[in-house]
Specification:
- The chain has 343 residues and is mostly helical.
- 76% of the residues lie in helices and 0% in strands.
- It has 13 helices and no strands.
Length: 343
């Protein structure tokens, strides 16, 4: 898929480019294989323990949705990206496929950003304002409605601006990669898309995480000794949240900065095309890494595997002693001696 923040490089030698492309292909392929295996295990474990992990734990709902979105990204979007790195061009490269791929990629990434920003805001209520979530009406306003909005809004938004935006499709055979949808040629729509669906969630993630950590440190100094246990529990929830925030901030900040630099037409930065490519390449790892970060937020599957391994290793190895066969041989010898005596 063509990246709008990347300009084609014409002055790089072919051999280094192929080497870099091969390395990028191998890295994406490895992370995809492990991500598929572990995501399937997570989903199976969650289904088997649905009552404990989902129904009785509201704070796990955004995490479950992020795992599902990551799985869809890994099986529907990332394979075509890996295929492009393998061959050096997008395949297939039809108008309908490219529009579907662009819609899928934009939708899944925006849902992930919105869910992460929502999860961080909701984590404040789970830590400091738990009493509000006990009221059904407030629980719907704070918890369920934002999650439903994060799932419904992105696909509808991109469905309208990608598939129903009036434009004339260009000849896709003129390029090795899928062309961007027509709405990117409209500066107003492009900036609205970037500000609302990329920059705003990222800013919320950074600010909300900073405020939450500051609030936790401030509340720590006002706690009495009996309340230290509660603070330790809160600290664990904050650290879990920081793991998710770090992935999104490190993955999305480079491409956001690139877009800002492109808006202000900083030619000195545009000359370093290799840096732009590597920075944009980091965003491909966000969704595949999400299931592994769930080890910190949902440690139950890891403990389950650990306990099973311990059970297998703790079983004593018993050497089989064939007692029955020896008794049968002894009986046959006695019968043979008795027959001899009769003769």
């Amino acid at each position: 898929m063509e990246n709008n923040s990347i300009i084609i490089i014409n002055h790089i030698s072919l051999v280094p480019l192929l080497n870099v492309q091969t390395i990028e292909f191998i890295l994406l392929l490895i992370i995809e294989i492990f991500a598929i295996i572990y995501t399937l295990f997570l989903l199976i474990y969650i289904v088997l323990h649905w009552q404990l992990i989902v129904i009785k734990a509201l704070h796990n709902h955004p995490i479950l949705l992020l795992i599902i979105i990551s799985f869809f990204y890994i099986i529907l979007d990332l394979p075509f990206t890996i295929n492009s790195y393998r061959f050096g061009y997008d395949n297939p490269r039809t108008v309908s496929f490219c529009l579907w791929w662009y819609w899928t990629d934009s939708t899944l990434m925006t849902i992930s950003l919105c869910l992460t920003a929502t999860a961080i805001i909701q984590r404040y209520f789970f830590i400091f304002k738990t009493h509000l979530l006990r009221i059904r009406r407030t629980r719907w306003i704070i918890h369920y409605i934002p999650l439903i909005f994060c799932i419904i809004y992105p696909p509808l938004f991109y469905l309208i601006i990608i598939l129903f935006y009036p434009c004339k499709n260009l000849n896709i055979n003129d390029s090795q990669y899928c062309l961007s949808p027509c709405y990117v040629k409209n500066p107003l729509l492009l900036n609205i898309d970037w500000m609302i669906n990329s920059a705003l969630p990222l800013i919320i993630i950074i600010l909300a995480t900073g405020i939450l950590v500051g609030w936790m440190i401030h509340s720590m100094w006002n706690l009495d000794h009996p309340q230290l246990f509660i603070w330790k529990k809160q600290k664990k929830l904050i650290l879990q949240l920081l793991a998710f925030s770090l992935v999104y901030v490190s993955g999305w900040t480079p491409s956001t900065v690139i877009y800002l630099l492109k808006i202000f037409s900083l030619d000195t930065f545009n000359e370093n095309q290799s840096i732009i490519i590597y920075l944009c390449y980091m965003s491909y790892f966000i969704c595949p890494l999400q299931p592994f970060i769930c080890l910190f937020i949902l440690p139950e599957p890891f403990h389950y595997i650990k306990d099973k391994v311990k059970q297998i290793l703790s079983k004593p190895f018993v050497t089989p002693i064939v007692i029955i066969q020896s008794l049968k041989i002894e009986k046959y010898l006695c019968d043979f001696m008795y027959c001899l005596c009769l003769l």
